[in-house]
Amino acid sequence: MISKKSLDDLKVFTEFEANLIPGGVVYGITEGDTMTWVKYSDNLDLNVFYVGLKLNHNSTTMTSIREKRAISQNIPRSIYGMRLTVSSIPIIDEQGNSIGAFSMAIPKLHPVVKAFPDFAPMLSEMFAEGVQLRLTDLNKIVLTQSSQKFDIPSLKEGVSLNENSIESKAIKSKKPQSEEVNSLEYGVPVRLSAYPLFDEVSNEVVAAFSVTTPKEIAVNLRNMSSNLENNLTGISSTIQELAASASQIHANQQNLNTTINDITALSQKINEVSHFIKEIADETKMLGLNASIEAARAGEFGKGFGVVANEIRRLSDQSKDTIPKITKLTQDIISKVDESNKKSENSLSASQEQAAATEEITASIEEITSTCEELNKIAHSL
């Protein structure tokens, strides 16, 4: 208990002490049931205690006065709009009567709220694209910390929470919430995350901690990945058509090569026929010569037969003269066929290489497409 005589000294002490308590404090002196003196910390925005305030009979202070003992109670948010720990000590006069109380009300802050000024500035610079960190109570934004790279000026301290805000959703659901928002609302695509903060004793939600990060790089990466994947799909389709064409060309080249070989074989047969004709011509000439000799022996009776023999020899000579021409033409055909055959074989080899290269390209594109899919998944997880 506190003696009435020491109140002046106590006031001097609290004037100095008020701004040294983290989170702020409000001191008050009550005489009877009315507050006669109040001292706030400079950083505490709580105007519920004031000189002239009549206290409720069941309040912590009035209970302390009645029972002549120091009392400390946790006051829920519903009473003063802020969770408080109120402690009251009776004030006694010279006769030992309890005539009032000295009270101290300290905001009851969640550990995250207490630590926010210390960790938030460091944490805000650890995000590559920037970040805005926020702490709220159940109704409004209480504290904010933005990085140098990113800020949302519209979300500042004192702004009331919209019922659709990520913090309100976390508070109502009592579960962490996360969502992505396009660039229309905040100027750039962002990811919003909020986490409910619970009272250590009652386990009721008392605040929310939220993180907003820009996702412009991730969205651009996602779009690039999708575009690349779409383009690769088109290229892959074209490559498959080219592969089918290459296979058809290869089959045609094989057929052409077979046909050329058949022509070569026919040319060889023509050459054989030419040799056969030459032999017949030689034999025919010999027969014509013998016939002429026999016609000469026959005299007058063999003249007609001699004419026929001469005609046979003339036709034999013409046939024999034609053989070199046929032979040359046949050799020319064989030469051209050989040349075409070599080109066909080269083309066949090239088509085989093209088909193999096409298969390799198709496999590479499939691998790149798979990589794009993984990249897209990573972009969505950022």
Automatic annotation (TrEMBL):
Organism in which the protein naturally occurs: Clostridium scatologenes
Domain Methyl-accepting transducer residue range list: 238-382
Family matches, as SUPFAM superfamilies: Methyl-accepting chemotaxis protein (MCP) signaling domain (SSF58104)
Lineage: Bacteria, Bacillati, Bacillota, Clostridia, Eubacteriales
A Pfam family the protein falls into: MCPsignal
GO BP term (any one): signal transduction
PANTHER family in alphabetical order: LYSOZYME-LIKE PROTEIN-RELATED, METHYL-ACCEPTING CHEMOTAXIS PROTEIN MCPB
Name assigned to this protein: Methyl-accepting chemotaxis protein signaling domain protein
Keywords: Transducer
One cellular component (GO) term of this entry: membrane
